[in-house]
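Intended use. Records like the one below are meant for learning the mapping from a protein sequence to its folded structure. Do not use them to infer anything beyond what is encoded.
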Amino acid sequence: MTAGATAALTVFFFATSLVTVITGSTSLVTIPVMLMFGMEARVAVATNMFALALLSAGGALPFVRTPAMDRPRLPLLVTFTLGGSALGAWLLFRVPPKWMTLIIPAAMLTVLVLLLFEPKPDTQSDSPLTRTRERTGYALAALLSVYGGFLSGGYATLITATGILFFRYPFTRAMATAKVLNIASSMIAVAIFAWFRIVEWPLGCVLGAASFAGGLTGARWAQRMPALLLRRVFLITVAALALKALIFDVPWTEL
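Structure written out for the chain above:
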């Protein structure tokens, strides 16, 4: 890749990270752009995954010493995520990616409908949880982690929504927890992709540094934003990305 293309991608990754550290769905934007620059699909996914890990690290850092982190649940959630994402990374070499182009927007639209009808999610963090609701949250997090290791586009968005819907997190806690899980998901996937030698490390390090800086800046902005505004940005982004994927990304004639 030329120096000019690398510079353009670096600026793009930084700008994208500023916003998607809040909304998620980074890969739905970054991977198509990497493909436009001529990268092979699996190499683009693997290299993007490394940048995602650093983006999530930058996004999680401002919340480490705050109550936004759900420390009691994180160990089990991380354990499920590591196992599921390892399986997902392996599936990248077995499953036709075109099927995932339909699953992503369908899942995001389902999440959007559920969130729109969920009453006052930003005031529910102290509400009692039923064991069924909590176990469903763990099960869904484990299932989503498989997709997180496979491609990751929309993974952080869906994990954020899972925290809101099933663990009754306020948006800031859901976002912070999603960043930690995205670190775990991305790093185990990167380890497997590295074993298969499909990570373009020099480019990944440059894009990862830009993503880390963008994620750190965006997360600090999020800490100062009203919860209601964060929620509205999130919902609008989910709707826009889902519709965009359905219209432009799904290869309807091939399914």
